[in-house]
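Task 17 of the worksheet. Students: predict the tertiary structure of the chain below and write it out as structure tokens. Keep your answer in the requested format; marks are given for formatting as well as content.
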Amino acid sequence: MLGVVRRAVLAWIGAGTLIREKVEELVRRGESEQPKFMRDLFARAEEEKKRMEAKVEGSVRRALERLQLASKADIEALSKKIDSLGRRRGE
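Model answer:
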């Protein structure tokens, strides 16, 4: 599942990058008569990128929760408990 999500995100980023490069090339050559349109397009693309990142992050978080893997915070809490128990025993 994560592989599919990763490939989709990479494809989306790649397409966005390619479009941006082509539009910037047209603007440099003076072939674009709508710079405001281009700015709006880039702004919307950036907003969509942020939404996509949030969705992917949420999907990954839910997948990890379903797998019931220990989080970094869980491991740190257990480590502190182990250290505390070790000190109590005099180790």
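Marker's comment: The longest helix spans residues 35-67. Residues 2-89 form one domain.
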